[in-house]
Amino acid sequence: MLKQFVVIGIFSFFIVASIIILTASSTNEQADHQNSPSFNPHYAITPVPIPDNITFAGEPVPINYFDVYESLDREMLVNTYWQSQTLLFIKKAHRYFPLIEPILKDAGVPDDLKYLAVAESGLANVVSPARAEGFWQFLEGTARDYKLEVNSEVDERYHVEKATLAAATFLKESYQKYGTWTMAAASYNMGRKNISRQIDRQKSGNYFDLVLGEETGRYVYRLIALKLIMENPENYGFYINDKQKYQNIPHTLVEVDTMVSNLADFAHQMGINYKVLKELNPWLRNDKLTNKTGKKYQIKIADTTLRTVVPDTVFYKN
């Protein structure tokens, strides 16, 4: 009997200690954000606020239409309450939007179209079941049509800057064809041939009046939802400071116009390792660069080999 009391006493001690530790940890985490006057420490599931007046790429969104309101409401709920995914979008955008934004601007494409890269890939070099690849999800044939190199050693669908320029060119061509950026965005998802077929069939060139199937029918609403949430994350319960976002990786550009027989050796010669070389240059798809034509490639080299991890931030320390 005494032995049982001892066991129960020890067990109770560990439970109480665990509760104290978890409570202290939660208190410390909340303290980081309690300086914000709008911070609410009590979690609640509520409808998502939708502004009365919304524009996308400078074009008004007819939010007063019941079908438009309900379609946007769905995407706002999905992207607000899939918290882990949206947090990652916000973290990644801090690194990649500064690369994407000036390219869109120079090409004459509205800044809001950067959210296509978020919707298409989550700002990651993913491969779709249809074999669309990279941030902007180009199929191989379309990539070549827009002057991206694609072969066993180089795939510029994975080159953020070059793929962004190709996407901007496609979007601008679509805008010239359809007259609105919402339709240009829809054509990016569905393809111009399919969009044009639906315009002829339904006798309308307005995205908000078209029946476009599940994926494209949700597509522009998702872009609008991502814009609203990512521009004002605290309005939707996302509290994240700049230190917690993914930082730019300082680097220099090294121009190469000859064969690189072994990229691992090349990386070590540059003072970095093979993994870091591939992280900064995912368009290098092999462990060599044959380069028979003498083409000039610019390879990003991290400014230092010392990678230091601090809470919520990864950066290259000088």
Protein architecture, described:
With 318 residues, the protein is mainly alpha-helical. It contains 11 helices and 6 strands. It folds into 2 domains: 55-244, Lysozyme, CATH 1.10.530; 251-316. The protein has helices at 2-31, 66-81, 83-106, 115-121, 140-145, 160-178, 181-190, 192-202, 213-231, 263-269, 274-280; strands at 55-56, 59-60, 251-256, 297-302, 307-310, 313-316. The strands form 3 sheets. A two-stranded antiparallel sheet has the order 1-2. Strands 3-4 form a two-stranded antiparallel ribbon. A two-stranded antiparallel ribbon has the order 5-6. Strand 5 (307-310) and strand 6 form a beta hairpin. Helix 4 crosses helix 9 and helix 6 (160-178) packs across helix 7. The longest helix has 30 residues, at 2-31. The radius of gyration is 24 Å and the shape is globular.
Give me the secondary-structure topology.
Layout: H1 2-31, E1 55-56, E2 59-60, H2 66-81, H3 83-106, H4 115-121, H5 140-145, H6 160-178, H7 181-190, H8 192-202, H9 213-231, E3 251-256, H10 263-269, H11 274-280, E4 297-302, E5 307-310, E6 313-316
Antiparallel strand pairs: 1-2, 3-4, 5-6
Helix pairs in contact: 2-9, 3-6, 4-9, 6-7, 7-8, 7-9
Structure summarized in a few sentences:
With 318 residues, the protein is mainly alpha-helical.
